Amino acid sequence: MTAARQPHPPVTGPGRRLLVWRDSCHFNRWEDKPCVVCDRPTPLRSHRGEPVHKVCAEDWNTAHPTEVRFVSDAEPKSRTKRDHA
Predict the structure, then answer these.
(1) Is 15 left (phi over 0), alpha (psi -120 to 50) or beta?
(2) What is the number of other CB atoms lying within 10 angstroms of the CB of residue 71?
(3) Which of 68, 83, 85, 84 is nearest to 19 (CA)?
(4) For the whole model, what pTM was predicted?
(5) Which residue in 73, 37, 65 sits closest to 52, CA to CA?
(6) Residue 1 contacts residue 20 (beta carbons within 8 Å)
(7) Which of 16, 42, 39 minimizes the C-alpha distance to 30?
(8) Secondary structure of the chain: what % helix, strand, coil (to 5)?
């Protein structure tokens, strides 16, 4: 008999903003480096090239709300949005 799955804890909380890292520049498939926050290996990179897990970056942003270190990607232009004349 298999054990029942436990629900996952909520991803977001008060004051927590999730980062949008869809650009391929955030992933280095050739080399894992120690995360600047937790020191575990990660293939992910911030916009500045710092090795950092996305969740670690989100936690850091929550703990330091007045500092800008880890940011989301710019929103891509929508192909379906028709704002021209």
Answers:
(1) left
(2) 14
(3) 68
(4) 0.70
(5) 37
(6) no
(7) 42
(8) 15, 10, 75
